[in-house]
Amino acid sequence: MLSKLVFLLTLLISLVASEDTNFTYLGFQSANLSLDGIAEITSTGLLKLTNETKQQKGLAFFPNPITFKNSSNGPVSSFSTTFVFAIFPEYPTLSGHGIAFVMAPTRGLPGALPSQWFGLFNRSNNGNATNHVVAIELDTLRNSEFGDINDNHVGIDINGLKSEKSIAAGYYADNNGGFTNLTLISGRQMQVWVEYDGVEKKIEVTLAPINVGKPKTPLLSLSYDISPVIEDNMYVGFASSTGSILTTHYVLGWSFKVNGLAPELVLSQLPKLPRIGGKPKSKFLTIGLPVIIVSVVSVAISALVYVIRRKRKFEELLEDWELQYGPHRFKYKDLYIATKGFREKELLGTGGFGRVYRGILPTSKIEIAVKKVSHESRQGMKQFVAEIVSIGRLRHRNLVPLLGYCRRKGELFLVYDYMPNRSLDKYLFDQPKVTLSWSQRFRVIKGVASGLFYLHEEWEQVVIHRDVKASNVLLDGELNAKLGDFGLARLYDRGTAPQTTHMVGTLGYLAPEHSRSGKATPGTDVFAFGAFLLEVACGRRPIEPRGATDDVLLLDWVFSHWNRGEILEARDVSLGADYVAEEVELVLKLGLLCSHSEPAARPSMRQVVKFLEGDFPLPELSSLGLCARGLTFAHNKGGSFSDFAMSYPSSRDRFSQSSFAAESLLSGGR
Ligand SMILES: *[C@@H]1O[C@H](CO)[C@@H](O)[C@H](O)[C@H]1NC(C)=O
Ligand SMILES: *[C@@H]1O[C@H](CO)[C@@H](O)[C@H](O)[C@H]1NC(C)=O
Ligand SMILES: *[C@@H]1O[C@H](CO)[C@@H](O)[C@H](O)[C@H]1NC(C)=O
Ligand SMILES: *[C@@H]1O[C@H](CO)[C@@H](O)[C@H](O)[C@H]1NC(C)=O
Ligand SMILES: *[C@@H]1O[C@H](CO)[C@@H](O)[C@H](O)[C@H]1NC(C)=O
Ligand SMILES: *[C@@H]1O[C@H](CO)[C@@H](O)[C@H](O)[C@H]1NC(C)=O
Ligand SMILES: *[C@@H]1O[C@H](CO)[C@@H](O)[C@H](O)[C@H]1NC(C)=O
Fold first, then answer.
1. Partners of 249 in the β-ladder
2. Whose CA, among 109, 180, 352, 501, lies 20 to 30 Å from 397?
3. If DSSP codes are grouped into helix, strand and coil, which group holds residue 268?
4. Residue 653's pLDDT is what?
């Protein structure tokens, strides 16, 4: 019995030791890959991971497990892999999510989601060390929730989509070390090499166009011992996912080897990609018809191609139900021309919901700001547009006028009046070039209060802003405050799609009951307005990491000044002596009052306006039960950080150091 066991063990060990896996695929026709999602092998032998406009994933794995360790639980052996891929998006600048080379404990990743989750993870397991997944991502969309650097990068992911290290796609030339950018979604064939050195414990990733040999300098190099991540036996393969843009992700060839260099791919033997886009090749021309006819035909063809391309370029989504909104609907072409093709130079800023570009409308020459919102889910779009249009009818001197909208596949454009002085936060934080005087600040505060009051009570229906903060207050030419971005949060709020992870509202401005229930009310706007008041009076952000001893929460800081009877000392020092003490005191105390943890104890915007105008005196704070519980008035009672992080998964990314900040936000016991 025992000898039998020993024999079996020896057999097993000798098998493991002698069989270092290696394989090479030049096309996948005869490969027995394990496919999942929408991945398929074409008749020509291409591995087509995706070709869909829907949010779908495509995965393909080598069918057998690969032994990565010489001894169980030992260090991971060296390995190396290389593959050739090509990505064809429908539009030249927009695409699905990219391709990842993946190593996983199972032949497939059950429960993983498409879209930004890449078919690799989902919201609940992203970043968890129990995943045992290593991936090299060729990422073609920027997801700020994962800290993506741009929409065209290569990253090394360990157990989650927040890359350990990432870099813009490109390669270093061998001769002079110069860096050449590569566009992953260009449709060009590119080759990737991934190498892990089991002794040095280092991962290297190299990328190059197919006609360039392997560059000597890797694009990405990371010292990381993956031994705890990699299990003894793992599967290797590819994952890809699409969003709302038709994108085809192909792999043409692939080789892999443990303990050695992956066999070279004979490029000439790779299957051919189908012709997509490009001018049709015509034998007709080579046969030798008279030159004149040839040129006439080619002019006609290029004119046709031009017209078709142009049509595609400016293609937009317009459904029947939208016809009633005619006057509020902008043509994509006009917005494209206005913003010079959404040029980087016209970028005004990047907000929580998208990028904002400056533009000049072609015929009217009106200056506009265009907010480009990527929105993959079409759910709720109809109702959202109805709301946007009704919001477009809101007119108030302290609201940024919304002129209209436009829709394309996966994108929504909101067109606003252009505000030449940009947003208020630029005048408050980080050593601003121009500091606003107290009288200017007080006017801004009163303006925002009045705009919010209008939204809450003066219009035909209650509109909740949901994201009041200094960076959403814009200043016109005369430094009048205009509240922007209202209602946008709703688009995400309502989204029931599991992929929707955008946080609604911003940490530090979120009322405790809002983070608990996720429900926005006029009271949660008042809470955010309280944080805004403190920001403007103190010139500090609501949450700011500032060393171990100092307070992180502005609210705590102001509160402790108030508690010591010296609330005025909390004011922005850059105001110098130019301030009206009574007004500063009023604003700070009102800020505390609006930040009360009990919604019922907060004033309404109607009352706020009256306090600011001096029509009512502000009640004594101490009579409102603020002092007894001290700091807790900002904190919820039963919640914990994990509750919070669950309901707002992306909050960690929105603030640097936010986990530190959020923990202190909710600890309550300091
Ligand atoms: C790959 O493995 C096969 C056995 O499966 C072996 O015959 C061959 O020599 C190996 N090639 C390389 C390059 O290691
Ligand atoms: C992808 O799908 C579209 C529409 O479904 C089709 O027109 C196109 O030919 C497909 N492309 C490839 C390469 O299969
Ligand atoms: C193909 O792989 C499957 C496992 O995915 C295996 O069951 C089957 O036997 C394999 N077929 C061939 C011909 O290797
Ligand atoms: C595993 O064994 C191979 C020889 O079979 C050796 O080259 C390699 O360095 C070993 N790997 C580790 C991590 O010890
Ligand atoms: C996430 O993925 C894990 C493992 O792949 C799975 O067990 C879990 O059910 C998934 N969670 C959701 C919410 O889909
Ligand atoms: C990681 O996943 C394991 C098992 O799926 C679970 O028990 C654990 O709570 C997760 N950890 C975190 C931090 O989510
Ligand atoms: C490469 O792309 C980066 C942005 O990703 C840009 O800053 C840089 O100028 C580009 N370099 C070249 C040579 O085009």
1. 50, 87
2. 352
3. helix
4. 30
| CA 349 – CA 358 distance, rounded (Å) | 9
Q: CA-to-CA distance for 279 and 300, rounded, in angstroms?
A: 12
Give the total residue count for the chain.
Answer: 670
Q: Which ligand gives the minimal distance to the CA of 18?
A: 4
Cα–Cα distance, 379 to 570 (Å, whole number): 46
Give the pLDDT confidence score for residue 620 in this predicted structure. 80
**150 contact partners, CB below 8 Å, separation of at least 6:** 142, 168
User: What token pair was written down for 323?
Assistant: 């016809």
Q: Which amino acid type is present at position 265?
A: L
First to last CA, the chain: 65
How high is the pLDDT of residue 626?
Answer: 57
Q: CA 65 to CA 11: how far, in whole Å? A: 18
Q: For residue 256, which of 23, 523, 472, 577 has the smallest C-alpha distance? A: 23
Q: Which of 55, 18, 15, 22 is nearest to 38 (CA)?
A: 55
Q: Which residues, at least 6 apart from 84, have a Cβ–Cβ distance to it below 8 Å?
A: 189, 190, 191, 192, 210, 251, 252, 253, 254, 265, 267, 270
Q: Measure the CA–CA gap between 575 and 492, rounded to whole angstroms.
A: 38
Q: How far is the CA of 19 from the centre of ligand 1 (A)?
A: 9
179 C-alpha to ligand 7 centroid (Å)? 9
Give me the residues paired with residue 369 across strands: 358, 416
Q: 110 CB under 6 A from ligand 5?
A: yes
What is the H or E stretch that residue 249 is in? Answer: strand 247-258
What the block records as the tokens of 478 is 């005369």
Q: The tokens of 80 are what? A: 């190396």
- Report CA 101 to chain centroid distance, whole Å: 21
Going from the C-alpha of 312 to that of each of 90, 140, 624, the distances in angstroms are 9, 21, 61
d(CA 544, CA 554): 7
Domains of the chain, CATH where assigned? 19-269 (2.60.120.200), 320-417 (3.30.200.20), 424-620 (1.10.510.10)
356 forms bridges with which residues in the sheet?
349, 371
Low pLDDT (below 50) residues in the chain: 2-3, 5-18, 277-286, 288, 492-503, 548-549, 627-670
Neighbours of 20 (CB within 10 A): 16
pTM for this prediction: 0.51
Contact 628, 598 (CB under 8 A): no
Residues 479 and 97: beta-carbon distance below 8 Å: no
**Looking at this protein, which amino acid is placed at residue 34?**
S
Report whether 173 contacts 215 (CB < 8 A): yes
Q: How many Å lie between the centroid of ligand 7 and the Cα of residue 181?
A: 6
d(CA 336, CA 355): 14
Q: What is the pLDDT of residues 161-174, one digit of tens each?
A: 999 999 999 999 99
Contact residues for 31 (Cβ-Cβ < 8 A; gap 6+): 25, 41, 47
Residue among 100, 102, 159 at smallest CA distance from 127: 159
Q: At what angle do helices 438-453 and 605-613 cross, to 10 degrees?
A: 150
Closest CA to 561 of 533, 535, 532, 592: 592
Mutate to test the pocket of ligand 3, among 32, 62, 106, 107 (most ligand atoms within 8 A of CB): 32
Q: Are 171 and 207 in contact (CB under 8 A)?
A: yes
Q: Are 508 and 540 in contact (CB under 8 A)?
A: no
pLDDT at 477: 84
Q: Are strands 79-89 and 402-408 parallel, antiparallel or unpaired?
A: unpaired
CB 595 within 8 A of CB 533: no
- State the pLDDT at residue 546: 55
551 tagged catalytic = no
